[in-house]
Amino acid sequence: MSLYEALALATLVGIGGFAFYLYRQDTRPSTPGGPKSEPPPGRSMFGRAPQAPPRDDTRH
Question: Which of 4, 17, 34, 41 would suit a FRET pair with 50, their CA atoms being 20 to 30 Å apart?
Answer without folding.
Answer: 34
